[in-house]
Amino acid sequence: MIAARKLFDMAVASNDKGDPFPIWGTCLGHQLLQILATNISRNDVLVETDSVGHPANLDFVADAAKASRLFGGIAPDLFEKLA
After folding, report:
1. Span 52-81, pLDDT tens digits
2. CB-CB contact of 71 with 63 (8 Å)
3. What is the mean pLDDT of the chain?
4. End-to-end CA distance of the chain
5. How far is it, in rounded angstroms, from Cα 65 to Cα 71?
6. Treating both helix axes as pointing N-terminal to C-terminal, what angle do 2-16 and 28-38 enclose, rounded to 10 degrees?
7. Where are the alpha helices (DSSP H) in the chain?
8. Which of 3, 14, 76, 79 could disulfide-link to 21, CB 3.0 to 4.6 Å?
9. Alpha-carbon distance 25 to 37, whole Å?
10. Residues 6+ apart with CB under 8 A from 16
11. pTM of the full predicted structure?
12. In angstroms, how far apart are the furthest CA atoms of the chain?
């Protein structure tokens, strides 16, 4: 948490100066960014729920992926394995 706060503060300071400093947050990382951005305790965010994890398929759409910034530059042989 201490390291995440330092990196987040560095990114905010850099962005405020007009020098982009992106931070990627996936899953728990995205949740951590939300906690850091709102500057509240994680205990205020986390609540008891009765939800259960349900896996779901992610459908890879080749035409849309080829035009995206994330997947557009993937080598053709790797792209075929994903599609």
Report:
1. 777 777 777 878 888 888 888 888 888 888
2. no
3. 85
4. 37
5. 5
6. 60
7. 2-16, 28-38, 42-45, 62-66, 76-82
8. 14
9. 12
10. none
11. 0.51
12. 46
